[in-house]
Amino acid sequence: MNSFVYNIPTKVYFGENQLGHLGEELRKFGRRVLLTYGGGSIKRNGLYDRVIEELSKADLEVFELSGIEPNPRIESVREGVKICKEQGIDVLLAVGGGSTIDATKFMAAGACVEHDAWEFFGANAKPINEALPIVTILTLSATGSEMDTGGVISNLATGDKLGRLAAPLLPRVSFLDPTLTYSVSKYQTACGAADIMSHIIEVYFNTQEDLFMLDCFMEGMLKTVVKYAPIAVAEPENYEARANLMWTSSWAINGFINGGKRKAWSCHPMEHELSAVYDITHGLGLAILTPRWMKYCLDETTVDKYVQYGVNVFGIDPSLDKMEIAKRSIALTEEFLFEKLGLQRTFTEVGIKREDFKMMAQKACRYGDIKGFKTLTPADVEAIFEMCL
Amino acid sequence: MNSFVYNIPTKVYFGENQLGHLGEELRKFGRRVLLTYGGGSIKRNGLYDRVIEELSKADLEVFELSGIEPNPRIESVREGVKICKEQGIDVLLAVGGGSTIDATKFMAAGACVEHDAWEFFGANAKPINEALPIVTILTLSATGSEMDTGGVISNLATGDKLGRLAAPLLPRVSFLDPTLTYSVSKYQTACGAADIMSHIIEVYFNTQEDLFMLDCFMEGMLKTVVKYAPIAVAEPENYEARANLMWTSSWAINGFINGGKRKAWSCHPMEHELSAVYDITHGLGLAILTPRWMKYCLDETTVDKYVQYGVNVFGIDPSLDKMEIAKRSIALTEEFLFEKLGLQRTFTEVGIKREDFKMMAQKACRYGDIKGFKTLTPADVEAIFEMCL
What we know:
Chain A is of the alpha/beta class and 389 residues long.
């Protein structure tokens, strides 16, 4: 068991009718606010007006940057950096899902340096020692960006989609109102649930011994996703389901569950190459990859983790043969993702082609083999891609 | 489900060999440190010397207050306040268990006001708007004071033992090294485990609907205590057991699991009256009370919560009759506390006498009936005390 540092000071207002605190929280950081959002759904559903009203009441000066893309691009980040610098922005307010929040994080960091924001990424990435304060209003339960230090940005010019973690990127305050996710489509709700599930599985499937307490917590979060994601898909305005998914999305990736474990992510580095090239929804890519990766890694040396997962998350009879439990646990994961959530099952269905496998596999391993649950070489990644066809 | 604010910014260094960060963390708050500790066990086991070495390396000026009692007393708090004011202390460093940390919290708050520190307690308690920064090094897994906003202080002159919560009391940084609990006696380890279990049960047994995800987390923490407390008692130097108990002690009461729930504690207000009068260990009082309180509250309206507890924590067969499951869950709780942990089972064994029941029951309800899982009047509290004889 490794030693670790736990440090997640994000303040969260959870529940309905908490936006009355927005102005007072922003005022702690200054008066000049950059409001960032995506394609304008917040204008259609009335959230934009509510936010502007709160900002006006608190006598804040508001600048805006809209149109942040799903799989957000470095060009949007650059635009935000420019506004921050030119307008002397004090605090950034991201209203949206993980894409908007991720892009906003690198605007906040880019505003504090002279170099281009893309230099925060890649093998020779520049340090992120400071960032302007970030406040978020979450409208989609998925990436956990509202309570973590990371973000992922795409550069279509180079064909790269790269992630970065840095403590100054942690939002200072996040508003999590489950009712703001009522208007999320069934499809995006399902993709978000697959993303949450993957964040937990990436940490849970690990060969290193760790804190039993945290394994229990991960199993609890997985049970929560399995129970409530289909309800949220079927009944978009079910508060209990939306609330459980929302708080789980934050805790799945804020770092708490990593305590004492080595980092060992596998599906995320593979998926980032898919969505860098094909611009598909991140959660969908993860859904297609995860069960295949689970099958690929299953053997006598890893089977115990699958047994723990199958018994504690899906309630499989522990008296069965170990390998049988493992296989059933994968089958139940597939059933959840592809039948209960209704996500597409194969690369073929979403148009991802074999001709790109070698290139994407090489890129997934650009920093070396993926040292995950099992070590994956580019050839292993290609083999997993083949299973997804 | 209620809305709530999550705000727990304590930074935690977890694991062995983290004390090298002590100096740098304290220096963030200033140079003049008040080091507080209890009966001197930290001198016998070498921790005192390690701490002093780190403080010297960081060129900190150290003042000391030792001898803080179990069930810490207001007199110790007053002494600490006096040192803080006279010496212009910048930061307090509490080295010990919940008693030392609790007392230190009210020293830190008392240093910022003119009135006596006892005025922070009781029906007309003064506000706690600020406190000097607090850093802790935990040596006993039990109260969770290392990561929460509360503390409990005894006033033997008035026969009161009163708790107080206030945001400024939250430690800024806590060092949790499981090896520092290796020297905790079997008896105190068992009492600490009973305290942790009670913190979870006080929140878990609630008739209000809440976040399923948090119920899963509470069940995971209860399973952790049930699994590892007997191991820690049997093998005091088992790192895995000590680590799981330590991190669970913090998360059992830092406020996370309350999210969305009404506050509904029952056994703690009853127990505080026992240990105010008899000065017994808090966790032991809780261990004796908890199963009797569970029996007292069990009926057709509450049985479902016992079923959830019995099935998910103890693995009782869910196909049994509900009331049968509930009774088994109480029996297994008793078996855990009194057989596996070896704690005393009755008031008689620890010298608590019937003649004090009426007075203690009245005091437990001094602010009105206890609005817990079931509402308890003074007569109910007396009846539960009777069951403990």
